[in-house]
Every structure is written in C-alpha cells, then in structure tokens.
Amino acid sequence: MRINRKRRIIGYAAVTAAILVFPAGCGKETGTDDTGMVKTAEEEEKKEKKEKEEKEEKEEKDRTLTENEERMTGNPMDDCPDQMEIYERFMDGELTVTWKKEQAPITELFWDNDIEYCFYDIDGDGVEELHVKDSVAYYAVKVCNSLPQILFEGWWGHEPVALDGQCGILHYDRGYGSEWVEFMTVDADGETKSEGEFYWSDENRNGDMDEKDHFTVGWDEELTMEQYVRYRDEQLKKLSENELEWKERQLESFATWQEAYAAYIKRRENINSMQDYTHYSLIYVDDDEIPELYIDTGGMVTGEFVVSFYDGHMGVMNRGRVGLCYMEHGGLLYSESGNMGFYPCNIYRLLKGEFSEIGTGWCTETYDGENVNFDYFWEGRPVEETEYEAQIAELIDKPACVEPEKLYTKEEILEILER
C-alpha cells in the first residue's frame, strides 16, 4: 500500500546604494553581500559553515567515485570479489551505484529504512541479480566490471515476479476508480519490453467494473471488459503465486529518534530535489513520548511525509497531496485536500511505528454548463454526501484534528535534533 517541494524575491527597487554606518561597539560586526545588502556576522558564519559542509560532501563523493573507479580498473591479478560479496558490500553501504548521474549509496535510493531483498536471474543471462524494494521503490541491481549497476528502477507498484519459468516485472496500481496493469521483461542490457499498459476507468462512476466503462491497452487501442479482466487476472496470478523469496533488512541502525530523523532528513536531500524547499516539524501523533517527524515538501505531487521511530525502526508515510492534519496523541491522521475537481480523502492510523490506511474516499466535481455537481465515493462505492461524512466521522474526529503548529527549515530542525 502506498502510504505513499518558495523562493523569496528581492525586487531591484528594494536594493539601494545607501552607505550604512554603524557606531563602533554597537552590535556585532557586519558586512555586505554582492547586492549591497547588510549581512550579520551570524549570517556570514552560517554561510561559511554551509559552504564547508558542501565542500566536504563533494570531496567525500569524489573520493568514493575514485575508489569505485580504482576497483573497476585495478590490477586484474588482484583478487576479484564474487558477485555475492559485491551485493553484500553494496547493501552495507560500502559500494555505490550511478544514480541520477551521481554516485549514490543504497540509503539514498529508498524512502524507507526497512527494505526487502532477494536474488533471481531476471534478464536471462544465467547469473542472478539482486532485487531490492521498500514500500515505494524497486531496483534490480546487476554486477558489471565488479561494480553494482542499476539494471531497472521502478516506483509505486513495481515488483519482480517469477512463476512457472516466466520472469519479469509487474506494474500494478489501483487508484480512485481506475486500475493499471503492465508486465515487462528485461534483457541483459537493461532494455525492457512491455506487453502494453492495460487500463480500466470507472467511466459511469457506479463503483463497479462493467461493459460501459473505459478499457484500453496503451493510449488508443480499446479493449472489451472480458479481454481486460482476462489479462489482469493472468498477471495478478503471477503476483499472488510469486516464487521469489524475500528477506528483510534494515538499511541503518539508530540508537535514538533524534539520530534517526537527522539521518532521514540528510538522505532526502538526494531524493526528488527536496532540499530546496522543504519544511519540517516535530508532531505527536501516537500516544508515546517520541515525536514524529513531519516533512512538507511544498509540492502537490510529492506531498507530505510523516516519519515514526519505534523500537529502533523507522516507519514512513507519504501522501501525494497537501493539507495533512492529525489527532494529537490519538494515533490518527487525516486529509481530504485535492485540486482540479478531484478531492481524495485518506485516513491513516499509526500503531507501534507502522502506518496503515484505514479509510479511503473521494469527491469529484463536474460542471454541466449551469451547475456544479459533486459525486461522492467511499471505498470504491458511490454514496450520498451524508453517508460520506458519516463514514469519515466513524473513523476520526475531524474537529479534533490539528496541523503542525510550527515549521522549521532544514538547518533549524537539524539544530533541534542535535541538542
């Protein structure tokens, strides 16, 4: 289940050529930036600290890249580790892969800290690849020239499957009144071959799949309901009877929630470019004394994150919308914000560090030229507005929900966590 980013503009007119003179001994020393704006000593110190951190980070990445290159081009007479040892070193964070044109450790590939992995020859070259996934992302990793390389990357609903000698990657995603199914095979060069994306949409909005709905493969080729159902069921059988055996693993271990949250924030800098415009807060969702980490990415697509820490484990929830609120110490979260005539409602529970979605509905808005009409759905079924609100009220007390009281920048929240 998918539990699944402002820049201040200073106008030219605001910048003047005035010379500011401060009496000796009054306040702290000041300087000016490139625009002539006054900078305090604290700001200069923060800037120097940030530049130093960025320099050290770049040097570390360059060092890691050099080490990887040396391993790849080293003396052929040296002992070459077998691929299982390479996979283990990759999962331990000792080796990196090229990801988004940079060298990235495994911790920067995933949103979760708990992952699953298995080994299977998915490209038919006779050698097993490493398959790693969390609740959102999936990677097939292959050893090339004694280094791990990403063979395939998939997000939201991708999973390798093997059944009766046939193996490949299945993408299955069921949304709000819609469904997508796609099966792909992968060759040794990482090229994928798709059987096509099969799609269903509840065209008449009755909550049932019937002949009046919309069925296609790709964008244009229409299908009958029978054709779509037959193909979907064939693919879902591979998923339900999957022969792959997954093992569980933690990417990192943490002694305290402060350490865990700080590490998670630093990881996110390399995922979805969130470092430029995120805001953070510490909130209390469940009934223990450890706060949860709230992350506002500032974007409707990337939405908001809530991270928990329980018994040494991190749990992560992502809602691809904004407007999340929660019942303080009540263990429940709620949001029904949307846009462009579509407003999904999601209710989540946090229990022992694990997030689960316990209620799902949505409202759609249409305009017939004269009037605005609203249609309501709860758990895939059409309902009246009164029943819709009653279903929500049965699960959560909306008036008791609150939003994060104060948001911090990345620098501010890291300072709080390091106290």
Q: How would you characterize the overall build of this protein?
A:
- This protein is α+β, with helices and mostly antiparallel strands and 419 residues long.
- It has helices at residues 41-73, 83-91, 225-240, 257-268, 385-395, 410-417, and strands at residues 30-32, 38-40, 97-99, 102-104, 114-120, 129-133, 137-144, 147-155, 158-163, 166-174, 178-186, 192-194, 198-201, 214-217, 221-222, 247-250, 279-283, 292-296, 304-310, 313-319, 325-327, 332-335, 342-351, 354-367, 372-378, 381-383.
- Strands 9, 10, 11, 12, 13, 14 and 15 form a 7-stranded antiparallel beta sheet that branches. A 6-stranded antiparallel beta sheet has the order 21-22-23-24-25-26, covered by helices on one side.
- Strand 18 and strand 19 form a beta hairpin.
- Helix 4 (257-268) runs antiparallel to helix 6.
- 26% of the residues are buried.
Largest sheet: 7 strands, antiparallel
The secondary structure category is alpha+beta
Radius of gyration from CA coordinates: 26 Å
Overall spatial form:
globular
Oligomer: single chain
Overall pLDDT score:
84
Share of helix, binned: 10-25%
Strand content: 35-45%
Compute the separation of the termini in Å: 35 Å
SS elements, strand count: 26
User: Please, how many helices?
Assistant: 6
Uncertain runs are 1-39, 69-80
